[in-house]
Design goal:
- The two termini are 42 Å apart.
- This protein is of the alpha+beta class.
- The radius of gyration is 24 Å and the shape is globular.
- The strands form 5 sheets. The chain has a 7-stranded mixed beta sheet, with helices on one face.
- The protein folds into 3 domains: 85 residues, no CATH class; 125 residues, Sandwich (Immunoglobulin-like); 206 residues, 3-Layer(aba) Sandwich (Rossmann fold).
- It is built from 12 helices and 24 strands.
- Strand 15 and strand 16 form a beta hairpin.
- Helix 2 crosses helix 9 and helix 9 packs parallel to helix 11.
- It holds the Pfam family Neurexophilin.
- InterPro entries: Ig-like_fold, Ig_E-set, NXPE4_C, NXPH/NXPE.
- This is NXPE C-terminal domain-containing protein.
């Protein structure tokens, strides 16, 4: 029945799904969203190239060191210039290539990411900081040529999303499933689940003989409706993605400098990329020094009298599972056991400590039904927390938004920022930490799972959370190091 629903929905005219034009004046929130969208939109070329020969060629492109020196010191900056050419050997005149740059020393287990500067004319500068002593190798990969990046950005934002949801309505012993989502066919009778203050709206097709309040559960409905492939971009650009990866190697010998004494990491530090480096599976921030716990007992002492709230996806859920598996006194209180994404609560009565995890609400892509009745955005969850010096809130969103227009991601982030500002007015002592999005192996689901979307989300986070007294856990930089 689930598959039939999805297939039936695919047959509808896409024009029925797109949002209807509004004539009401744009709200302050809408103006902020559009401003950020315009900033991000400037990063990508407005190209419609559909043939391989006109796209970026890793083989033909040129890479060299800018202002090379005979030796370098720890802390020095290194700049690599990349000049893109297409398969015909012509110099590219626009930017937008999705690159990934990494510096590493295998013998030391050390690695760091490079910051990519796009001049929007086919020229790129990749900036590295030399964090450790020894020979280093630099690799630069073209993950998507600019033509593919342009297509991913354009198609992601031209309709309501690649994944819809299926809602379960329950009345006594009777159950009915209907399609739900951000935008639905307006010719049908719909149930609206709205938050007027935050301008967050979600809809379900209203089932016959059911009240809208009888919605009990929700799960995702995968379409795999490949607009990019239908445009022939997929055939000519994405299909050979693995063959356009390029690795450029440099071996650089540099001298060690005096060890820098860094201040302790605190809240309010700027989100920057790259923010540090990895050595022997330990993360070392660039701008500050982290406190290290030599034993689990020390960690438990730090967490004593703490109330820790985790809001996010499965990557943040792994944190609470780590605590549970490594702190013996931490006991799990079983609230539900119906699916993996149910709320988790761990208690340590001896230390008077509580750690909880709750998924961020829609969109949340999972094939198992989850309860709708306790769904709240992270914004609303923060509003329910009193806060004090013992309270720590850690949150992340990102990967589940990749399948939807960027508009919804920006709106959610802006609302989260406003909730944090309200929290700090009543409790400035509360600690808030924002975890950036994870990256992973590239796969064939470019539209929904490409790390290109993670890089877009990172740029948006830099804009939204600037000048806010929060901490950042820079996971994107860590993932690209290892």
């Amino acid at each position: 029945m689930f598959l039939l629903f999805c297939l039936k929905w695919l047959k509808q005219d896409v024009s029925d799904i797109l949002p209807e034009p509004t004539v009401a004046p744009a709200s302050k929130l809408e103006l902020e969203i559009n401003s950020i969208l315009n900033q991000i939109n400037q990063k990508f070329p407005k190209t419609t190239v559909k043939i391989k020969e006109k796209s970026t060629s890793a083989k033909n492109s040129k890479v060299f060191l800018r202002n090379p020196k005979s030796s370098y010191c720890v802390g020095d900056h290194l700049t690599v210039q990349v000049q893109m050419f297409d398969y015909n050997g012509s110099k590219k005149t626009y930017g937008g290539d999705y690159l990934r740059a990494r510096m590493f020393t295998s013998e030391l287990g050390a690695a760091a990411s490079g910051r990519i500067e796009d001049f929007q004319n086919g020229t790129y500068h990749v900036h590295f900081i030399l964090f450790w002593e020894g020979n280093v190798t630099i690799s630069i990969f073209i993950m998507h040529p600019s033509e593919a990046s342009s297509a991913l950005w354009r198609f992601r934002n031209q309709w309501h999303g690649y994944v819809d949801h299926l809602g379960k309505f329950t009345r006594q012993q009777e159950v009915q499933e209907v399609v739900c989502g951000f935008e639905l066919n307006k010719t049908q009778e719909l149930c609206e689940y709205g938050d007027q203050r935050d301008e967050e709206y979600f809809y379900c097709v209203k089932p016959n003989n059911f009240d809208c309040d009888s919605l009990t559960d929700m799960k995702s409905c995968d379409f795999y409706f490949n607009f990019v492939c239908l445009s022939t971009i997929c055939i000519n650009i994405f299909a050979y993605q693995k063959h356009i990866l390029k690795q450029i190697l440099f071996v650089i010998l540099f001298l060690i400098d005096v060890t820098e004494v860094k201040e302790k990491c605190t809240l309010g530090m700027k989100l920057e990329y790259p923010s540090g480096y990895v050595m022997k599976n330990v993360w070392y921030p660039k701008a500050c020094s982290m406190m290290k716990y030599d034993s689990l007992e020390e960690l438990g002492t730090c967490l004593q009298w703490k109330f820790i709230y985790l809001f996010g996806d499965s990557t943040l859920r792994q944190w609470i599972m780590y605590f549970k598996n490594h702190i013996s006194a931490l006991a799990q209180f079983y609230l539900y056991d119906d699916n993996w994404s149910h709320q988790l609560l761990n208690l340590d009565l001896k230390r008077n400590m509580k750690i909880s995890w709750k998924r961020h609400t829609y969109p949340f892509i999972t094939s198992s039904y989850q309860s709708w009745k306790e769904e709240r955005t992270i914004t609303r969850e923060i509003d329910l927390i009193r806060g004090d010096h013992r309270t720590v809130i850690i949150l992340n969103i990102g990967v589940h938004f990749r399948a939807y227009p960027t508009y919804y991601f920006i709106k959610r982030l802006l609302n989260i920022r406003r909730a944090i500002e309200r929290l700090f007015l009543r409790s400035p002592q509360t600690k808030v930490i924002i975890k950036t999005e994870n990256t992973g192996e590239m796969n064939k689901n470019f539209e929904t799972m490409s790390d290109f979307h993670a890089s877009v989300h990172y740029s948006i986070m830099e804009i939204v959370f600037t000048n806010l007294n929060v901490g950042f856990c820079q996971w994107m930089g860590y993932d690209q190091c290892i």
